Amino acid sequence: MTHDTLPTPSAAAPLASLRGKTAMVTGAARRIGASVARALHAAGANVVLHYRSSADDAAALAAELNALRPRSVRLAECDLLEVAQLPALVRTAADAFGGLDVLVNNASTFYPTPLGDITPFDWDDLVGTNLKAPLFLSQAAAPLLHESRGLIVNMADIHGVKPLRRYPVYSVAKAGVIMLTKSLARELGPHVRVNAVAPGPVMWPEDGLDSTLQENIVRRTALKRAGSAEDVARACLFFATEAPYVTGQVLAVDGGRSIGW
Q1: Of 103, 105, 246, 252, which is the most exposed, with the fewest CB atoms less than 10 Å away?
Q2: Per mean pLDDT, which range of 29-33, 148-152, 208-212, 213-217 is the poorest?
Q3: How is residue 225 annotated by DSSP?
Q4: Contact, 177 vs 134, CB < 8 A?
Q5: How far apart are CA 145 and CA 132, in angstroms?
Q6: Cα(first)–Cα(last) distance of the chain, in Å?
Q7: E-strand spans in the chain?
């Protein structure tokens, strides 16, 4: 099957069914996380939607998905930086649906930290949400994923390989996610697969980005266009449904941005 025939996350007939499987998506209330949750749900999975502060958005998404398939979605509120709470977050999946098959470490913070203005809080926050939380949540989820021969998908970034100017702490954190992915693949194999998706220009920051800069970024992609959250969701769905012999890999979803720097 070619890429052109891949289903959209809302398609009724996904590539391979996740029926009877359970997925947890962190930062699932909005943006890329919500698209990933919709894609996995459309493929048949029961989904645990993690959120920290976007309670209304999370509830709306849960209502949307439960309307399509009753009792298939559970909400889970948690501050991922509170490491002691992570085992209880994992138990949410086990208590609701009997286990865990897919963990998507999507939750992230993103903001500039120009050299000279970096604070310890910036470091703790950016490295904490982007790297520390995926590590400790994966560790907490590992026993359930071992039982189910499951999958972890980490959300990396092309700037984990090529640093983004004025974002050194974020870039360092995402570089760590790439190595975390490879390390966990070795640590958790052969029973658990671990891969990462590295988005490029698929969604602009919520606080806006200069239109000239947007045009410049798009111009540097091979495809000459921005992507979408659904493009990232398709990559996650690929790892979950069509890649049983793939682990320790990072898939760039960037329109060719990383080959035309």
Answers
A1: 246
A2: 208-212
A3: S
A4: yes
A5: 19
A6: 31
A7: 22-25, 46-51, 73-77, 102-105, 151-155, 193-199, 250-253
Distance CA 38, CA 233 (A): 8
Q: Where are the alpha helices (DSSP H) in 74-129?
A: 86-97, 120-127
Residue 46 tokens read as 């029961």
Check: pTM over 0.70? Answer yes or no: yes
Q: Is 209 helix (H, G, I), strand (E, B) or coil?
A: coil
Is 245 part of the annotated catalytic residue set?
Answer: no
Q: Is the dihedral of CA 148, 191, 252, 240 positive or negative?
A: negative
Tokens representing 191? Answer: 């029973």
Q: Say which of 111, 167, 170, 245 is annotated catalytic.
A: 170
Q: The tokens of 78 are what? A: 């948690």
- Cβ count within 10 A of residue 132: 18
Mean pLDDT of 35-57: 98
Q: Tell me the one-letter amino acid at 260.
A: G
Q: What is the pLDDT of residue 205?
A: 78
pLDDT at 261: 67
Domains of the chain listed by start with CATH number: 9-259 (3.40.50.720)
Q: What is the rounded distance in angstroms from the CA atom of residue 161 to the CA atom of residue 71?
A: 40
| pLDDT tens per residue, range 151-167 | 999 999 999 999 999 99
Sorted by sequence, the CB contacts under 8 Å of residue 83 that are 6+ apart come out as 132, 136
Relative to beta strand 102-105, strand 151-155 is parallel
